[in-house]
Amino acid sequence: MKVGLNRKFCLLAGIAVLLCIYVLQLVFTGRSQIKDLSFKDEVEEILIQTHDGEIRISRDGVKSENEAYSWTVSDGTSSYVAAGAVADGMADSLQNLKLLGLATKSAGADAARYGLDDGAKIVVTAYAGGKPVRVVTVGKNTSTNSQSYIQVDGSDAVYIVGETLHGTFSKTVDDIRSKSIYSVESKEISSVQISSEKDSFTVVKKTEAAPAGNEGETAVQKDSWTLIRSDGSSLGEGEELDDDKVSSWISSLAVLTCSGYLADDALVPAPDGAISLEITVPGKTIKVKLFANGDEEATSYVMQSSESPYLFTVASYVKARFDKSVADFVKAKE
After folding, report:
1. What value, to the nearest 5°, has the Cα angle with vertex 267 and ends 264 and 268?
2. What percentage of the chain carries pLDDT values higher than 70?
3. On the chain, which terminus has fewer CB atoms closer than 10 Å, C or N?
4. Using CA atoms, how far apart are residues 316 and 322, in angstroms rounded to an integer?
């Protein structure tokens, strides 16, 4: 008799446990179901609004050679070239939202808890075809710092989105601006002229066909360089130019990116101690100047270039790229 009762008790207890598990699965599945809020229209404009003001990022509608769109960023007063990767990333985030779950049906009086109060929220509007296609109100990141709280298209509901949209959209105009000053192929550089208090000289490329090693092999083009001092002389007696060192230096000059920009009306620093370079490529000469600041432990330097109408800053390690002398390119004696 006792055995039968024990079996019935165990059976009923097992059913109860399974029922609880089923109910919990229903609850958590409903809350954690991922919703994919995607749309097909390509984002053409992004408006970011905070209590500090607004930023507008606009696509020019023309793809470049690498099949990427060009963007501009504006604070309402001035417009600048935007970093394509940053603008594309913002557009993609707006176009492909993935909601991981519902945090609350309404923020209400708890808006600050989610970073959605008026002093903290970021309202981002995506436009396509001249019309708004999505409005996302971005709050703070969750405690994991890998997700954010958001509201979508005017809804009071607060969702958890599967990326840190707060970090994506809490940017200044300077954060969004392109930091590229110029970019060329190193093989296109035919000469570089440098002038500084340390030294002044020019290196000029000579391209020659290297002899083929075996019969039938194609001759390989090899670059060699000639160095000319400002007074017209070359290297001293017994000195030999190290083509590999020159080629390595030339490669380092092919691309220049900045850390940030000075104000549009910033004054050009005094030329004393500045380092000037003229880099010749097909069709133009790129001019750059790095200004001295009198601090040996400086973490950044101000620069100027013919490729940008704005003064900009570079990290201190960039100075070594421009601060060269003839001695840096002389082949070491064995």
Report:
1. 110
2. 84
3. C
4. 11
